[in-house]
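Input:
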Amino acid sequence: MTKRMWVLTAMLAVGLAFPAAGVTSKQGGTLNMIAWEGYTQPQWVKPFTASTGCKVHAKYGGSSDEMVTLMRSGGGGQYDMVSASGDASLRLIYGKDVQPVDPSKIPDFKNFGKAFQSPPNNTVGGKHYGISLQWGPNTLLYNTKLVKPAPTSWSAIYSPKYKGKVTVPDNPIQIADAALYLMKHSPSLGIKDPYELNKAQFDAAINLLKKQKPLIKKYWALASDEIDLFKNRDAVIGASWPYQTNTLIAAKAPVKDVVPSEGATGWLDTWMVSSHTKNLDCAMKWLSWISTPKVQAEQAIYFGETPVNSKACAIMDKLSKGSCAQYHANAPLKYFKQIHFWKTPIADCGNGQKNCMDYTAWQRAWTQLKG
Amino acid sequence: MRDRPGARRRFGGALWRRPWLKGLSLLSLPVLAFLIVYVAALAALFLSALWTVDPFTSKLIHHWNLDNFRTLWNDSTYRTVAIRTIYVAAAVTVTDALIAFPFAYFMARVASGRMRALLFVLVLLPLWASYLARVYAWRLILNNDGLLNWSLHKVGLPSAGIAYSNTAMWIVFSYIWLPFMILPVYAALERIPHSYIEASRDLGAKGTRTLRSVILPLALPGIVAGSIFTFSLTLGDYITPVLIGGASSQFIGNVVYDSVNQASDLPFAAAFAVVPLAVMGVYLTLARRLGAFEAL
Amino acid sequence: MESRATRIGLGVWVALVLAFLYIPIVVICLYAFNSSNVQSWPIAGLTTRWFSPAIHNGDMQQALELSLKAAALATTIALLLGSAASFGVHRFRFFGRESISFLLVLPIALPGIITGMALNSYFTFWKFNFGLWTIVIGHATFCVVVVYNNVIARLRRVPGSLTEASMDLGADGIQTFRYVTFPTISTALISGGLLAFALSFDEVIVTTFTAGAQNTLPIWIFGQIRLGQQLPQVNVVVFIILAVTIIPVALAQRLTRESGILRTE
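Output:
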C-alpha cells in the first residue's frame, strides 16, 4: 500500500515539476511560418539559422484556404509569415492580416523578373505586401509503365480509360482546372478566365467534375497522399505538383509529369509577413535570404518550380545540369502566360459584370461534389 | 479541565454534521471549472450557428438568422454525409462489440491471474503508439501493392480492392477503438460474481442459456459503455477519412473541419456540428438508461 | 467452468485478436528501418540510418517536450478534479447529482472537433495566448472523466462502513482520508491517471485547435506524414516511445492488482 502511495505522489510531483523544469520560452528568435510542403527544407533553413540566429518553425498547409485560416486563427497573432499563393494573398491583404514590406530592403529584389516585382496578387495600391517567391504549374502526373501512350492532354483524366485510378487535389480551386479544360474544348461556353465563371460556365465545370468523379480513386489532400497513391499504384494518372514528381522519382517510382496542351493552372507564391508579428527583424532576414540566387535555385530544383530571381538560372544548372531549362527558369514570357495562376474567385467579373460565382459558391459546390 | 478538540477536529466535525457543505466544497471546483470553460465555450459555439460570416475577411457577422440550417436541410449532400457517418459508426460499434466480447470473456473468466495481467498490458500498449502512425500503417497494409493484397496473392486469391474506401475506414476504425471496447466489457464481466454462474448451473441452465440470460444482461452496461467510445469517436473523426477514405468518404467531421479550415465559416461548422451533438445526446440518454454510466 | 472446447475456442480468438491488434504495430516498428523514405510493400531495404536524425531532430524534441508537459499537467488536474468530483457525487445526495456524471462525460462523448472549435473560439474571444495552458485545458476536459469514472467505480465497491468504523475508532476526517480512504482508491487513481496521460499524450484533434503555432508530438507526426519525406523518422520515434512505455505500463499493472479488502470472492 505504501508503494502505491509513493507511485502516486511521484506522479503528482512529476506533473507539477515538469513545467518548472522545462526550458523557458524561446521568444524573439523564432519564426512561425505557414508554408507549402517542401518550402522549408533543412537544406536552406539550416544555413539561415546558422547565419542569422533566427529559428524557423513551419506548419504545413495543403491549400490556400488552410493558410488563410491558419493565418487568421487565434485572432491573428499565431504565425509570423506565410507563403501565400495568389488565391490567398488578396484575402489576406484585404483582411488586414499581412503588412506591407519595403522591397528596397531586400537586396535581390532588383534581380527579380519584371513580372514578379509588383504582380497584382501581392501589390495593391503601390504597396508591396510581401515578396514574390517562386511559381509553377499544376502538372499532369502519370505512371510511365501503366499509362500508354504518354498523355499530352488533360482529357486523360476525364476519360474512363483509367477509371478508378485517377487522382486530383481535394481543393475547391480545382474547379478552375475543369474550367480551363472547357475553355479549350467547349469554346461555345465563352470562358475567358477559369476563375471568372458565370453560373452557366460554373455549372458546366461542375458537371465535368461530376462525370469525372467515378474515375477518381481519391481526392488527395496531403502531398504524401498522392505520393503513396502513385508509389503503390492505387492511382496511375492525376493532377499534381512537381514536388510529388520529384519525391516519387527519388523513390524510384516510374513516373513523369507534363504540362498538357491546354495549359495549366498554377501558383505564384509570395512570402508575406503577418501584421501581428513580433519578429519583423527575423522576417525581413528570411525575405532577403529566400530571394538570394542560391536559395532560389535550391528550392526550385527541390520542389520543381521556377524561381523569380533571374540570377538563379546559372546556379540551377550548376546544381543539377539542365534544371534551368527543365523548370523554365529562363523561359520566355510565353510560358509564363500559358499558366493561369490561382486567384480568388470573386463576384466582380472584371468585364464590367458582377455575376461571377464567388469563392463561397466554389467551396459549397466542392463539398457537394465530394458528397 | 475539559479537553477541547483541536481546530482540525472541530472543522472536520462541522463538515460531518453538515454533509452538504462537504459535498459542495468538493464539487465546487471541478463543476465550476467545467461550467466556466467547457460549457460556456460549447454554448458560445452553438450560438454562433445562428450567425454568418463575411466570406472575404472571415469576420463573424452577428446577424441572427437560420440560413445555415436552411442550407443543411435543403442540400441533400449533408444528409448523405450524416447518414454515412452514423452508418459506419454503428458498424464499427457492432464489430468491436463482437470482437471484444469473447476476448474480454477470456480475460475475465478463463485466464489465470498472470495471463490476465499480460493481456491487460497487451491491450493497453497500442494506445501508446501514436494514433496517426497506426492509421498510416494501415495504408501500407490495405494499399493496392500493400501487405493485404500481397498475402492474398500468395494464396492465390485476387486483390481485395478496398484501399481508400468506406470498407477500409470501417476496418481501421474498428482496429483503433478496439481497446476502448475491451476494457469496459472486461470490467463488467469481471464484476459478475461466480456464484451467479453457479446458481444458474444449479438451476439447470446449459452454457449458452447462462450466457444469454445471466452473463449478457450483466455485461450489457459494459458493452454500452464501450460503445459510447467507439460510436462517438467514429462519429467525430476526420483524420481517418482523410488518410484512409476514398472519393466518397466524407464524414461529418470532414465537412465541419473543411468548413472551419477552408471556408473559415465557423457558424456553418457549428450548425452541422449540431447533428453529432443531437445524435450523441440521444445515445447518451439511452446509454444511461441501460446503466452504462456505472460501467464506464 | 466453461467446457474445454469453449476455452480453446476463446484462446484461439484471443490470439487472433492480438494478431489483429499488433500487425500495424509490427509494421510501424519494421518500417523504422526502411531504407526508402516512401512507404511501400515489400520493404525497400533495411537500415538504421534514421535513428540518429530522428533522435536529434530539434523539432521532434520540442514537440515531445511539449507533449510530456501537457500530459503531465492535464493528468494532474484530472486527478485532483476527478477525485474531488467523484467523492462529492458518491457521498452526497443532492439535486442534480445525475447531471454531474452527464456533464463530465460530455467532453469524451462529444466529437473532439466540437470541443476543439469551441475552445478555440473561446480562447480567441478572451484573448488567451495559445500555448501550453490552452493545450492543457483542452486535454483536461476529457482527462477528468477518465479519473472520475475509475475512482467512482472503486468508491462504489468500498463499503461505507469502513469510514464510519475509522471515525468510531477516533480518527478525524483527515486521518480517515489518509489511512483508510486514500489507500483504497490509490490504485484507481494510478490506472485512471495512466489512461488519462496516454489519452492526452496521443491526442491530436482537440490539440490542433488549441495549440496555436506550437507542435505537440502528434501534431509533429501529422506534419511529417503530410510532408512524406521523413516517414521512417516518425516510425523510429513511435518505436522508441513504445519500447520506453512498456515498463511503466507493466509496472502500473502490477501495482493495481486488486488485493486486500477489495478482492471479490
